[in-house]
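Weekly puzzle thread! Below is a chain. First person to post its structure in token form gets bragging rights.
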Amino acid sequence: MSNNFKYQLLADWDIPLHTSDVQAIMLFKGKNIRGCDFLYNEELVFETGDLTVTQYIDEVEGPGVWAYAAYSRDFEGRLTLCATNVCEIHDTLGIIVNSDHGSVIGTLRGFLGDLLDIELNVDFGYVFTGWDSDDYTFVDPSLAVQSILLEKNITINANFEPAKFNLSLSSVVDENGDPIGLVDETLSGLKDYLSDAPIKAINTDSHEFTEWIGIKIADKYSIETTIKIDRDNMIAIADFQAVELDFNLSESDGIPFALEDDSVEEETVVIVEGDFDSFSYGEELEASFFISEYTDEDGEYVFRYNSIEHDGDYDGVPKYKIDEFTYVDENGNDIKNQIQDLDEEYDEEYGEYYVYLTINKNITIKPIISEYDPT
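Winning reply:
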């Protein structure tokens, strides 16, 4: 490898004693000429009548050998040699280092036979895997510190691979320390430095994903996204909220209903107590049903509510009864056997039907009512 740096070379001289005859000073330069003879491949650098000039600084690119000769010229045109000097720049050898993820400390230029010591500092996030070169043989290429004997210009390559950093995926937990949602745990583990590692949360029947908790997450509100691995022991935690489910009431076919807070009309047959709304998964719910009563003698309307008879004198024999309750989802499918903690009770003394459950699905409850047969 040739040295492409620029060097300053000094040519200096003394003007002879015949200064009274000197008209001008002339400086010649020749390359690759040794000795003090006249320069046959000379190049006139400058000519000046200023006899106080006794030196000249030249700028050249090495390596090479330059010879300089200063002459005085008298009024007759005769030249007299004032001085010659030879300036030599030696060629050096060098090491070119290709290193994408590390820096080299040490001397990379020297002369033939020099032993140069270098040391590789590896960048964070990478692992040095060894040296290789097409024009140099390493005794142990796995060592980051090397002593290289300069015999020619060489190029060496430092090889790397990304470091492996750990990624942990998890779900938030409840008061008992149990996870309330799911994550794809197969995506946890060792990941390449600066890689975009996939992460995934999984909705359950009870909880739905809301956001990721952590740093360097591409989209914290996406159930599937990526995380940039830029350090060890990275953590991504999936947060969830309880699924909102509907508890609805369906009136029995052709039988009038009234909720507890509604005004009770004479045609009301079933009075219902309970909240029919949206609830979070796992809430415990309760509903109760009362059957109105009739007289079939004079047509006078009588009903019983909380064991109190209203509007008439009747012996309390009901005209209607609830045979069963049906439970369906939003698609009309029977889900009675899938409802958590379902319990049905009948209080014969008060004529009240009770339904208890823990909501774990969208539920529509419907009482099946038929006329009471005293026989």
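Puzzle host: Confirmed. Bonus trivia for everyone else. The CA atoms of residues 139 and 146 lie 9 Å apart.
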